[in-house]
């Protein structure tokens, strides 16, 4: 399956194309990141991208990035500092076939000269996280401009979920239990408790935004268990050239209509199915 985002080499040995980042699949859909804001999620992706390469497999390796690079769409260094602190406090669950590990997303971090534009951040990842990622061969290929453009953490989470699967050769859809999908989107416990609220405030806006900005189409269909929605079936397909041009124009401010989906492009039929 040569089109699959999997190789016999470590993800860290691969070089992303300009404007892309390769996010280890182990860090997509992790449990425990529900309280992270959109800014924190963006910052973590940028820290991963900045550190990408063979050195990321070295425990306690320190990396440096300018605050100007990190702010991306942040409003000031104070908000950036808050995002970094939340990443350091966040313990996530990473599951593998033979074990479950609880690890912090970010290790020791130093912010220097944060009150001016020449400031920089020096950081490292927890050694256990480095160990878990060292042999990673699965990854999500993410467009940095899409990470910048999305306006909600739900849309960013959905973008990563689909990007992890969009280039698989023979898989075009997957069904997730509703509680699992809530967690994957980053919905906090106790929020959006009913399916109607989850649909209105998280699922539908996220799909609409991803379809407008991403290099692929995504659609969903609720799966009922009795009278209640018990699962969500998600389908995807890469966009054609013209649809990708529209997405690029949308991101970069050119007047363009959102790309439309057709039944030929996606196995589920309608873009959004409400029941």
Structure description:
The protein has 275 residues and is an alpha+beta fold. It has nine helices and ten strands. The strands form four sheets. It has a three-stranded antiparallel sheet with strand order 2-6-5. The radius of gyration is 19 Å and the shape is globular. Residues 256-267 and 269-275 have low confidence and may be disordered.
Labels describing this entry:
3-stranded antiparallel β-sheet; single chain; 9 helices; alpha+beta
Rg, Å, rounded: 19 Å
Strand content is 15-25%
Straight-line distance between termini: 36 Å
Poorly predicted runs of 5 or more residues: 256-267, 269-275
Average pLDDT for all residues? 85
Largest sheet: 3 strands, antiparallel
- Identify the overall geometry: globular
Sequence-ordered SSE layout with sheet pairings:
Blueprint: E1 20-24, H1 38-51, E2 63-66, H2 67-71, H3 77-89, E3 91-96, E4 99-104, E5 109-112, E6 120-123, H4 127-133, E7 139-143, H5 144-149, H6 153-163, E8 173-177, H7 178-185, H8 195-213, E9 216-225, E10 228-238, H9 241-251
Helix pairs in contact: 1-3, 6-8
Tell me briefly what this model is.
34% of the residues lie in helices and 22% in strands. The chain has nine helices and ten strands. The chain is globular.
């Amino acid at each position: 399956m040569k089109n699959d985002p999997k190789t016999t080499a470590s993800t860290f040995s691969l070089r992303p194309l300009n404007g892309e980042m390769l996010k280890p699949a182990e860090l997509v859909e992790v449990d425990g990141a529900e309280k992270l804001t959109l800014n924190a999620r963006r910052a973590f992706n940028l820290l991963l991208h900045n550190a990408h390469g063979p050195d990321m497999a070295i425990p306690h390796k320190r990396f440096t990035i300018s605050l100007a690079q990190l702010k991306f769409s942040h409003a000031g260094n104070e908000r950036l500092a808050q995002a970094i602190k939340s990443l350091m406090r966040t313990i996530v669950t990473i599951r593998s076939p033979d074990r479950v590990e609880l690890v912090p997303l970010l290790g020791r971090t130093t912010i220097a000269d944060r009150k001016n534009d020449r400031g920089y951040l020096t950081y490292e990842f927890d050694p256990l996280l480095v160990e878990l990622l060292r042999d990673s061969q699965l990854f999500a290929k993410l467009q940095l401009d899409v990470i910048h453009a999305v306006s909600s953490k739900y849309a960013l989470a959905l973008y990563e979920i689909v990007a992890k699967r969009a280039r698989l050769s023979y898989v075009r859809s997957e069904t997730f239990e509703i509680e699992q999908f809530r967690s994957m989107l980053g919905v906090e416990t106790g929020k959006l408790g009913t399916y109607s609220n989850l649909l209105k405030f998280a699922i539908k806006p996220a799909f609409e935004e991803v379809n407008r900005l991403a290099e692929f189409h995504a659609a969903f269909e609720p799966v009922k268990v009795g009278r209640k929605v018990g699962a969500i079936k998600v389908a995807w397909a890469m966009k054609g050239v013209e649809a990708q041009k529209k997405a690029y124009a949308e991101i970069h401010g050119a007047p363009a209509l959102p790309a439309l989906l057709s039944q030929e492009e996606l196995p589920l039929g309608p873009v959004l199915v409400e029941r």
